[in-house]
Amino acid sequence: MGKHPARLAKIHPGPQEPDQTLAALDPGEGAALRLSEQLRSDVVLLDEAAARSLAVQRGLKVSGTLGVLCDAAQAGLLKLPAALDLLRKTNFRASPELWKSLYTRRIET
């Protein structure tokens, strides 16, 4: 990597005003949802069901860890089964049916 690596992300301060409609969410997920609204982002990355549901109710497009991995596999950036194997070794949770559907998914690059 050169002296000036590519900037892949921009850091934004979290929203300052409280939003009581997000009080039931994890603070990080609430902040991600609010920041996505403020920036009018294309998609917000959330994994918890309650946060995802609320984001959809607020008109946001939602993806999560598994969606990002599928998109990366589609782009030829990783092998989905190997990435799923690594993810399963963490505390990430998904239903047995979802794991099965992901392992049997055909990825076309």
Give a quick set of tags describing it:
45% helix, globular, single chain, mainly alpha, 109 residues, 5 helices, 2 domains, two-stranded parallel ribbon
Commentary on this structure:
- It is a single chain.
- By secondary structure, the chain is mainly alpha-helical.
- The chain has 2 domains: 25-63, no CATH class; 65-103, no CATH class.
- Helix content is 45%, strand content 4%.
- The protein is built from 5 helices and 2 strands; from the N terminus they run H-E-H-E-H-H-H.
- It has helices at 27-39, 49-57, 65-74, 80-88, 96-103; strands spanning 44-45, 62-63.
- A two-stranded parallel sheet has the order 1-2.
- Strand 1 (44-45), helix 2 and strand 2 form a beta-alpha-beta unit.
- The protein is globular, with a radius of gyration of 16 Å.
- The model has no long low-confidence stretch (mean pLDDT 88).
Mean pLDDT score: 88
Radius of gyration: 16 Å
Per DSSP, what share of the residues sits in E-state strands of 2 or more residues? under 5%
Q: Please provide the ordered H/E string of secondary-structure elements.
A: HEHEHHH
**What does the main sheet amount to?**
2 strands, parallel
Please tell me the total number of domains: 2
Give, in spatial order, the strands making up the sheet with the most strands.
1-2
Number of helices: 5
Total strands: the figure is: 2
Structural class: mainly alpha
Note the overall shape.
globular
Q: Detail the poorly predicted runs.
A: none
User: How much helix is in the residues?
Assistant: 40-55%
| Alpha carbon gap, first and last residue | 26 Å
